[in-house]
């Protein structure tokens, strides 16, 4: 406990090409693989909680704002074919391979921490929308335990005929 070597070790897992751009408040998410990078932000949130370093609170706040304002569908979910696309160009991404459920799961963590820190209701609203539209909706109604990996957002698309389809 309070051993600086643990902090040094933790920093070895930083990803400057991602966290650095968020730190200077650039929307650089395009072409990043969404669900390997959201956990890096969650890790940063834990670092803020443990060390109190305000940079990681700022990074998470900015990240949440960018994802929500520029990479999120009406349902509250994000990502296309596991990646982020150009900011505010979501109409071009509508297909069967939207809103990977794992990204919703991790964005719930990001928004939950922000809500705990700030008590701002917008984060709870985000959480509720993502939970109802992106977690409950991936369960197959008549088939408990059967779920879908991606949530199709394209017009006329159906969960039943998506690429990944239903699975366990
Ligand atoms: C997300 O964006 C919507 C629409 O602009 C806004 O109403 C809401 O407050 C935002 N939520 C967060 C957590 O930034």
UniProtKB/TrEMBL annotation:
It holds the Pfam family Beta-AFase-like_GH127_cat. It comes from the Eukaryota. Residues 2-159 form the Non-reducing end beta-L-arabinofuranosidase-like GH127 catalytic domain. PANTHER family: PROLINE-TRNA LIGASE (DUF1680) (PTHR31151:SF0). This is Non-reducing end beta-L-arabinofuranosidase-like GH127 catalytic domain-containing protein. It comes from Aegilops tauschii subsp. strangulata.
């Amino acid at each position: 406990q309070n051993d600086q070597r643990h902090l040094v070790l933790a920093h070895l897992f930083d990803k400057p090409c991602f966290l650095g751009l968020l730190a200077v408040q650039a929307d650089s998410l395009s072409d990043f693989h969404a669900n390997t990078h959201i956990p890096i932000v969650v890790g940063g949130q834990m670092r803020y909680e443990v060390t109190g370093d305000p940079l990681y609170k700022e990074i998470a706040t900015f990240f949440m704002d960018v994802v929500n304002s520029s990479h999120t569908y009406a349902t509250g979910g994000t990502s296309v074919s596991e990646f982020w696309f150009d900011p505010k160009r979501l109409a071009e991404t509508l297909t069967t391979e939207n809103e990977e459920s794992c990204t919703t799961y991790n964005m719930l963590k990001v928004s939950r921490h922000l809500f705990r820190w700030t008590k701002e209701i917008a984060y709870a609203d985000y959480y509720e929308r993502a939970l109802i539209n992106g977690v409950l909706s991936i369960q197959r109604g008549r088939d408990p335990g059967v779920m879908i990996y991606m949530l199709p957002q394209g017009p006329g698309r159906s969960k039943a005929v998506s690429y990944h389809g239903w699975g366990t």
